[in-house]
Write a structure and sequence with these properties.
Number of strands: 12
Structural class: alpha/beta
Number of helices: 10
Helix content: 40-55%
Order of helices and strands: EHEHEHHEHEEHEEEHEEHEHH
Largest sheet: 6 strands, parallel
Strand content: 5-15%
CATH architecture of one domain: 3-Layer(aba) Sandwich
CATH topology of one domain: Rossmann fold
Length: 313
Amino acid sequence: MTELADKRILLTGGAGFLGQVVAQLLRDRNVAEIIVPRSAEYDLTEQDAVRDLYNETHPEVVIHLAAEVGGIGANRANPGRYFFANMAMGLHVIEEARANKVEKVVQVGTVCAYPKFATVPFREDDLWSGYPEETNAPYGIAKKSLLVMLQAYREQYGLNGIYLLPVNLYGPGDNFDLESSHVIPALIRKFIAARDEQADEVVAWGTGAASREFLYVDDAARAIVMATERYEGADPVNIGTSREITIKDLVELIGRITGYTGRITWDTTKPDGQPRRKLDTSRARDLFGFEAEVGLEEGLKHTIEWWEANQDG
């Protein structure tokens, strides 16, 4: 058990979509100080910058959320950047945690690390049973390499590092930029614009046959904080709902909730991405008591309401 009250916690990515929710949960636990590095001040891809960050802030616990990430289009456009940035950030954050004798490191990975054709539901033991889906493999492999690093550092140096594998996240405050957003915010933005403009159609990518599992951001943040407090093991742990939905059904659900009444067409020249994603989440339940609480329709309604209130901001 890691008692968080009165600790100094370095929270990379703490100003972001997920990080802001994690930060609030840490404040609720009376953390002494939450250190949120900003990229303008500390470029985490640079070793000297990360070393300066540790030397200046002296963290006792590190939660590494910072990432460069996007949807299928962004992954296809930036494979080299996404590999380098995510590999470099994790490499330096973990190495400096070792050098500074940090009590605990929490590395947040990605479902993109799983093999393209992993057995469904994805179990943590299957993480190495094949190559990831091609469009996001550089990002997924960079993140998965950090699991190997943490396990090696635990064995050689005694670094207490844990590794979490969240499924696709969504919720209020998500990235709604159509050039880099994930599927849910992109669809919400498209449908609301089409509804308001009374457009005849909304074009969705792929065939709609692929499936995905989605986790509401508040649930994800709660899982991360629970794991930080209660989990001390070397094995990776899935974080999700263990419920999947096809993209076709998701598109129709978002269309219905937003009140869009036009037609939906599918651009089959665009990729579907990984065929299916559904996690086995029993390890998180058994090891630190996490189970998701927010259902997909409820979470979508909250996210849509947030975007309608903030789209002009």
